[in-house]
Structure formats: C-alpha cells, structure tokens
Fold this sequence. Notes:
The structure is a homotetramer. Chain A is α+β, with helices and mostly antiparallel strands. The first copy, chain A, has 2 domains: 2-81 and 250-266, Immunoglobulin-like (Sandwich); 91-243, C8orf32 fold (Roll). Chain A is built from 5 helices and 17 strands. Chain A has helices spanning 100-103, 118-125, 132-145, 159-165, 170-183; strands at residues 2-14, 19-23, 33-42, 49-52, 59-65, 68-80, 83-85, 147-148, 167-168, 188-195, 208-215, 218-222, 233-239, 248-251, 254-256, 260-266, 282-284. The longest helix of chain A has 14 residues, at 132-145. Chains A, B, C, D: InterPro entries: Bact_transglu_N_2, Papain-like_cys_pep_sf, Transglutaminase-like.
Amino acid sequence: MIRLRLSLALSYEVNEPGSNFIFNIHAAHTNRQVVVDESLVVNQQVPLTVETDPTTGNRYLRLSAATGPLQIFYTASVDLTHYMAAPEQIAEVPVARLPAQVLGYIYPSRYCQSDRLYRLAMREFGQRQQGYGRVQAIRDWVAQRITYAKNISDSNSSAIDTLIETAGVCRDFAHLMIALCRASNIPARFTTGINYGVDPAYGPLDFHAYVEVYLVGGWYLFDPSGTAIPMGLVRFGTGRDAADVAFATIFGEVGSSPPVINIEAIAGADGLLVMPQLVRSALSTDGQHQGSP
Amino acid sequence: MIRLRLSLALSYEVNEPGSNFIFNIHAAHTNRQVVVDESLVVNQQVPLTVETDPTTGNRYLRLSAATGPLQIFYTASVDLTHYMAAPEQIAEVPVARLPAQVLGYIYPSRYCQSDRLYRLAMREFGQRQQGYGRVQAIRDWVAQRITYAKNISDSNSSAIDTLIETAGVCRDFAHLMIALCRASNIPARFTTGINYGVDPAYGPLDFHAYVEVYLVGGWYLFDPSGTAIPMGLVRFGTGRDAADVAFATIFGEVGSSPPVINIEAIAGADGLLVMPQLVRSALSTDGQHQGSP
Amino acid sequence: MIRLRLSLALSYEVNEPGSNFIFNIHAAHTNRQVVVDESLVVNQQVPLTVETDPTTGNRYLRLSAATGPLQIFYTASVDLTHYMAAPEQIAEVPVARLPAQVLGYIYPSRYCQSDRLYRLAMREFGQRQQGYGRVQAIRDWVAQRITYAKNISDSNSSAIDTLIETAGVCRDFAHLMIALCRASNIPARFTTGINYGVDPAYGPLDFHAYVEVYLVGGWYLFDPSGTAIPMGLVRFGTGRDAADVAFATIFGEVGSSPPVINIEAIAGADGLLVMPQLVRSALSTDGQHQGSP
Amino acid sequence: MIRLRLSLALSYEVNEPGSNFIFNIHAAHTNRQVVVDESLVVNQQVPLTVETDPTTGNRYLRLSAATGPLQIFYTASVDLTHYMAAPEQIAEVPVARLPAQVLGYIYPSRYCQSDRLYRLAMREFGQRQQGYGRVQAIRDWVAQRITYAKNISDSNSSAIDTLIETAGVCRDFAHLMIALCRASNIPARFTTGINYGVDPAYGPLDFHAYVEVYLVGGWYLFDPSGTAIPMGLVRFGTGRDAADVAFATIFGEVGSSPPVINIEAIAGADGLLVMPQLVRSALSTDGQHQGSP
C-alpha cells in the first residue's frame, strides 16, 4: 500500500459574472484508490456541488463564480493498493466477450480517430501475439516515435496530428496509444491525474494524462509519454479522451494562471513509508469488477 | 398513441469463421416507446445474446457467425406515446444545472468537433433568444445549407467535412446539427432508428439518423435532414455520434447487402389507427426523467 | 503616380553555421511598380545573390549566414502608376480563353483547397452576375464572416481552417478568398508586400498578404482583411499561396525577432506628394500584359 | 534509344453545351523524349488548340464541346534516350545552389503537405548520407509502408491521408514520396504519363503518376508505387502535384468512361527493337539543363 499526499492550487480571474466551472480535480473513488482525507477551499463564497459519476468514479466540482479572483485549493491523502499481475499471463478479451459498458472504448472518439488507423494497426501489431505484450508493444511504438515537446500541439490536436507531427505532450501520447489500441479492437481509455516521481526536467508539476487498457482482469495502467512512474499515478478522471475529462471546463470569460501542484509519498496507516517505483508488473487501480483489478 | 409495425432483413456473407457482430437493431425500451411484440430470427444456429444498456435503453444483439450466409430478420410492433410541448415554452437548461449524465453531450466527439465551431456558433446563434426556438434555428440553418446527396460523404465524414462540402446524408446533417448545438453549450445526441413516412424519392427505406436535444423537460426530437416526419421515428439507439450507434459493428471479413426495411402504421390496442403527422409541437420519446418527456 | 518610401529591418540569431536564407523582401519590378532607388545592407560579410523570377517579377535574396547576429536592412522608393478601371466594366475571362500561364491559378494549392469548396462557391456565388462585382461579393463574404484575430491561426492554417474557425490574420483572409475564387473558376493568387495606411489598431506594421484576381485586363487588387488601402500596397511577391512567397524561408537553426517596418508617401519626381486613398475603382499594378493593367 | 508507340481513347458524354476541357494527354517535348509522329482525332467538329508550356514542356489540348458524345483518340511514337548515371555518384544540390525555377518544388502543395512532415522526415532520413541513395531510401520507405489498393483514396486524398490510411494508388504513393523529399529539402515533382511494362494484375492500363527528383545532373525518375518499369515511362506532364497535371480538367456537366490505353515497344529508326528493362542506374528524361539529364 502506498500513501500519497497531494495538493493543488488553481487561480483564475473571472471577467464575466456567473461564469460556470466544472472541475475534475478530486481524486477518484475506486476500491483500490481510497481517499483517506481531503479538503477543498474556495476563496469565493459561492455554492459548491460535488457529484460522483457512478460508472467512472469521476468526481465533478461545479460552481458559478462572481467576477474577480477565483482560487481553488485542494489537498488529499490517497491510499493506493495496486492490483499487480505478471504481464505474460494477461490475455486480451475477445470482442465477443467484452462487457457492454466497455464497448464504447473500442469506438473512435474526438481525439482518437481509430477508424482511420485500422490498416496501420494491422500492419504494425496485427501479427503480434495477443495479450498484454501486444499492448506494451503499442505503447513502446508510440514512445519511440513521438518526441516530448511543448508548443507543437494544442487543445485541438488529435492522435492523427500527433502521428504526423511526431511530437507532443502527455495528452498527445495518450491519444495516439488509445487510437492504436482501439484500431486493434482493444478497449482503451484516457485517464487524468497527478503523478508522483516526475523528472524535474519536464518543468513544474502539471496534470498528467495516461492510458488504461482493458484486458483480462480489468483496466491496466500505461504511461506512453514515459514521464511518470505508473505506480505513482493518482487518478482523477477517466473518459473516452481529453474531451471528456478536462480538469477544468469553463463557460464564460475567464483568465487563468498555471496550476501549482505538489505530491509526495507519506507514511501510511501502518506507519510505513512506501515509495512508488518502476516495476515490471502490470498495474491496475480499478476496483469495479469483482475478483479483478 | 401511435402503433408502428416494422420489419427488417439483413444479409451478410461471412468469409471468416468466428466473425463477430454487434447489432443495434432492436427498438429501444423507453417509457414512451413500448415494444408490444417482436421477433428475431437468425438463419445460423449460433448463440445469441441481447443486452440492454441501462443508461440509454439501447439493446445490443451479439453473435459470432460461421462462414456462409448470415441472415437476420427482425420484426416489432411499437407503441409511441409522445410527450408534446409548445416550442415557445421550452427553455434551455443552464450549464450549471445540467445533470452529470448529460454533461458528456456538450463535449466534442469523433464526428461532431464542436471544439472548433465555437466562434461560428456564437456568430450565427449567439444573439438568438435561448430556448427551443434557438435549437430550431440551428436545425433550419443546417437544413438550408446542406444538400441531401449520396456519394459525397463516407463513413469517415464529420461535421466539419459536411460544413465544407455542403452535402451529405441524414447522418451528416445530424452530426453538423449536433456539433453546432454543443458549440452553443446545448447538449445534443445522435439517434438512430427507422422512420415512417419517408418520401419515396429518397430511395428504398434505410436506417435513419436524427438528433435529440436536451432542453427543459428532456430530450426533444429534431430531423435536420428533413426526410422524415419526427412523429414517425422509432428509436433504436442513442449515443455521442455515429461512432457509438452503428446498426451493425462487424469484426471479421464479411460482405453485406443493403438492408430491406418496412414500416407501417397499424391499429393500436384500442382498435384505432393513428397516422404519424407533421406537427408544430416539440416531441420527445424519452421517458427516463420523472415528470418529463 | 504615387511614390512610397519603405524601410525594413530584419534581425536573426543564427545558431547553426551555414544556415541558408531565401528572402523575398525586395519590391517587385513591374511596368506599373517602378523601383526608383533602393539599398540593401547586411551586417555579415557574406556573398549575396538577388535573382528575379522572369514570370512573376519576384526578387529573391539568397545568402548563407555565419553563426551570430544576422541583420538585414532594406530601403526603397517605389513609384506606383495604377491601372484603374470601372468595376462594372470588368468581365471575367471564360476558362476557355484563360492564358496557359494563368491556368495554374485556378487549381487548388496547399492552403487554398478549392477542390473541396465547389459546392459552397456555387451555392453562394453561382447565381451572381459574372464579373468584377462577383469577385467583390466573394471578397465581402470573406470580410464579413471572418474576424481579424491573432493567435487563432498558425503557419499550417489553410482556407478550410479559416472557414471553420472564422478568425485569422491577413494571410488567412487571403487564402479563403483565393480558394473561393478558384472554386468559382476565377484565377486568384496570393500577393505579399508592405501596405501604406494601416490603422495603428492592428499593431506594429508587418508584412501584408492580399489577393490578386485575374479578370479581363489583368490582375486586380483585393484586400479581404480590410486592414489596408489597396492603393497603398507595395508588392514584393506573388504565388499560388503563402507556401510560395514567404518573406523569409530559412534552412537551419535560427532565432528571429519581429521585423521593424516603415512606409510613407513622399513627393514624386514632379515634386508632388500624392497620398494613397480608398477609391471605388478597380486597381492593378501588374504590367506584364500589353495594353492591360 | 527506346521507341514506344502509345494510343489512348477517351470517351465522354457531354450534358451541358459549351463544356470546356483542358487535356494533358500529349507526350511532352523534351530533349530526351522526342515525339516522332503523333495524331489526334476528335469526333466533334470543334476548334482545338494545343499549347506548350515553355517551362515544363507540358502540352495542353483545349476545346469547348457540344452536347452529346465526345471522343478523343491520340496516338504517338516516342523516342526515349535516357540520361543514365550511377546512383552512388549523384549528389544532392544544396539549398543555397538550387536554381530559382526549382525552388517551388521544395515548398508544400495541395496534396503534398511537406510543412507538416519535417520532424518525421528528419527522424527517418535526417541521418542518412545525402545523395541519390537517400532519395531511394525515401522511395523504398513509401513503397514498403503503403499498400496498393483501389477504393481507399479519392481525388481529395493527400500525402497525409496516405500516411494515415497506408493504402492508395500510384497518385498517392507519388504524393507521399514528394512530400517526404520536400520535407528533407530535396526538390520533387509529380509527373504523369503512360507506362510500358505494367503487370496485368493491376488491371487495364491507366494513366500513371510517378515522381521526379532534382539532384545534381537534373530530374531523376522514381516510381514509388512499384507498378512500372521507370525506363518504360512516357511523360505527359509535370507539376507541383496532381492539382497541376490532371490528364483532363473539365468545366461543365459531363459523364465519362474509363480511358482505353495501349503502349508497346517498336523498332526504332535504326530498325532495332529495344525493350525497356529494370536497371540499377538512375534515369532521367529531362533535357532542359545543358550537359545534364
């Protein structure tokens, strides 16, 4: 069990009264990711609602802000009890046996146009043995061909843009890996959160985007950008792609500053400090399916 | 109350053993669309499963077929009790009050890239009075600018392609209308089904795609292609866009013939024959929200 | 006759030895645009070549720079003797009579995808009376629908992007107008230069992009962005689109600063100072075709 | 010296009087491709003009047709005296020494968006030794990744589409190879013609598209689709991409049938029959530059 303590501060300048915000900045509730304690402070005295989506565990904070500064402070301590499995023992789930609620994750979405990548995926990955290893091969293919670079992509960039431009940030790596998994008929989803253990070379800590892939046992973690240790990821939200799980969706004229984020490993309930580390095992933090990750 | 009787026959030639099919060809179950009787016949002796998605009411038929001909016959009698409302009394739901499960329908999706159309939508519809009338204006804008034409668009075509090419089929009209609604922060979804009352000029009856828009009271029907009478639509599936609700998703090498579809109005339980007609009222067949359409 | 005096200063930091530059920053030579005097100063002692393209009159300065600062100063006095004609008397040239060297300007190019806009152009402009007035209608259509805005478009943006995003800079206005002209079978080309008389609200003076359209009599000037007085335009280069006439094409690792540009009207050889002004007449500065603009 | 005899028959049904046609179906005139004899027969009694573009040697047949059938028959005997060179002795021309009239072929064009492929080209080919071998490597990269397939691409398809879809016809192979050459700062152009020696597996003989690349000595032939013997290519036209050199550009409502094309090797003036064959040498049929191919 790993206990991580995270804090984040968001700052906005609201120029239009009644601007609406939908945040997805709460650590998700899953069987294997337990929020031990948390606090939320908002500088404006406005009504707040926090809803939990029953299917994904995503939590949405919604508020309507007055003009002037809006500041959000969130802190949480989160216990992660990863499901771990040996990669070579994890098989793919045949399409015929995919649960209905997972089917949506093999279809194309806004930034993951898998419908245009079937031939490419077949050519590159079609002959590989099915299973976790094939997904790892997709992840490595993306990691090798795409260069981490800011200022190449923007919020409209999609998996196809990334394939062409061969550069992007974590969001772009994730979109391309997801599109290639789906083009191979393997369900994949976009996940956001905060990650422990990022190389400071990547600049100030920011929200992170990574990938979860559905194989026998449940949804497994992959970080195609290679910027994080998968074991150190705290999940906020999952969705079809970045369109579904922006950390902030804003309706109104609002200026914003970069978020200020911190995360550290702390001692757990048993007094032991366990650090996230890079492991060979497949990891999952999803606890919705019985007897599974 | 309207009772419609529909039948459809699908024919495939399966060239790869174990090809998997996911069909969405069953009339959906909603409070206001009741399936009175139905039958499904498949020529191959293979296991069939039919699942109902609890959130949408979509029903999915899944099977794995042997090589050779595969034929699916489906017939159903469906009772429609539309919720009807006066257009001028239907308001938009402010973003701040949208239910969490509706939020996904204001985000962009594969074929509805609303994220690139905010300025266009603001320019064209931003000054209009909010409410059903504004949605009707979006529907009319699409209907006026896009020409119904086969062989211009294909399965990769998106709302942006349709805006540029100014031509397409019902699927393309629906995608563009949805994208413009979402760009105006109005939730909209893609709906498929069979429609009664199509002008024979459009050729043999085919599956139809139309739009449902979320306003106060629930999801209202719009047919931007203008090829159908909204009152005559029998719903099969709803989703973010065509990526979610193909009538058939096929995994394997399979040839296909055009579907053969029929629909007629018949006498209901009370012995009365009521024909769908074009009405000025707003219509909804969605019955999931209490005291609403 | 109008005499304009312009100066421009370009500053680069060359990080890779032997970086190659191709500049198109010399005022073009045409019968109606005469360069009275000019000077070119380059801070580095490197060989310079200036070539004139015989078909377009574009002049290309080429050099290979050493590492360190590279500074280019160019000044010129240019006499403009516009061909002027009454708009209502200018007809279109039927495709069958277009000169061979003009044909290339009805074909699509990198940023002007006229091949995808035929139906839109036919719908919007197909019923209009042919002639200068129809081109003016295309120009006005673009000017009305597109908003001048920096930071929306970038160097990859095309006419289709601008149509969708409905915002851009002078380059984007020009590309969209050109694409719509070509989709209407009217030859149009992309022209760059410096313009006298820009509203200071648009920020520091920069290179300008506008449109020349081929009609009976030759190539006529249009400024769809509305930021300039067409009579005050000094032409540097013309081409199919921005791909052909970048003011600087750089091969190597080079940093750059914004150009510093000035232009003013001065007294001509006859001692008279004539100011460019907004006129109703059609204008042309192209002098390649006998007895024509 | 190789002598090839070709014939082609084009059939149209003209539905709109005065429909205009621009054909590029005449064998080009170059120093190394000499048209020994030719004939052109058109079934309609309409004025014909044939113009030769002085820069490219392309010949354009223009006519305005009456309603009803339009049939064009063209036959020619062409002598090819290829310039041949050893691949390992052919260097690239540094950008700084590219002739002005060649510069346009390093810029992006409608279907060859080299501006988006710089990073990909640098990654794949940036470390290779410059020269003919590098261009051959680009050609082979395209040939290996793209599958020849009809009905995947259409007339709007570009190099980027082909890179994504990984399938297409000769036109698509050519566009992708051109884009990658230009992204590597190597001038490349699109060439059309008829090719001797096509494997009948590709179906009835059709117009062919291939690539010419500018290296020391001139423009060298490459056939990335691998469907033809480069030595058997008879050139009709060259341009930036398919936008410039359609074999027929039609203005008006016109139906068309597939062309009927034949080509054979025949005895030359010396009575010798020389067959085109696959050779290791670099080939060029361009004779515009003194002492060069």
